[in-house]
Design goal:
By secondary structure, the protein is α/β, with parallel strands linked by helices. The protein is about 30% helix and about 20% strand. A nine-stranded mixed β-sheet has the order 4-1-5-6-13-12-11-8-9, sandwiched between helices. A two-stranded antiparallel sheet has the order 2-3. Strands 7-10 form a two-stranded antiparallel ribbon. It starts with 6 loop residues before the first strand and ends with a helix. The chain binds manganese (II) ion.
Amino acid sequence: MMKRKPVIGVTSSLIDDRITVHKSNIYAISDAGGAAFVLPNSSDRSTVLQLASMMDGLLLTGGGDIDPDLFGEEPHPMLGEITPERDAFETAMIEEMLRLDKPILGLCRGCQMLNVAIGGDMYQDIYSQHEGNLLQHKQNAPVRHGSHWIEIEEHSLLHRIMNERRIRVNSFHHQAVRNIGSGFTASAVSGDGIIEAIESKRHRFALGVQWHPEHMTTSDPHSGKLFQAFVDACGK
Ligand code: MN
């Protein structure tokens, strides 16, 4: 008999009225044994609840900036393009998946979105709002290249997955998590103090990473491990 694959909803971007998602997100899930489908940015509450009830896991993909109104701030001059429809859908979806204690993996923007949905806040632009000298977090190197190191918190979920305290990750962000929301904790930081991963202390699997492992699966064994751990958690 064919084994049932974990069903994983993948969030989408809205660009010029088109729903888009980079295929690497879908392939990374398929390669780890999951069945992925692309989620709408629906504003209908009952649609969100019904989709969440069908899903075994939620992948929050990367994308543009997040509306600062969600954490009570006015837009900073360096804020990029925002998509309020997407922000609202993802917030509702995260809340419902956490309530059901179903696994969530957030990538880049998805890490920030996860934090904002649980009451945290963020830097709208690290280069103008973060103290001290920063690394290059918008790398010019190819997307497959891990450009900066991160230090992983001992005994964290991320540590158990990677089985390493330091790994190299790619970096394509100018925003970042600032204060972490309640019940979550930092699971990795970069050398300049930017939070590079967060995870829930209460939920089975709710993890956000500030990098793009979906683009590193062919160049970096850690990225495959991350998707495998996520899909396995979705299957339990
Ligand atoms: Mn970074």
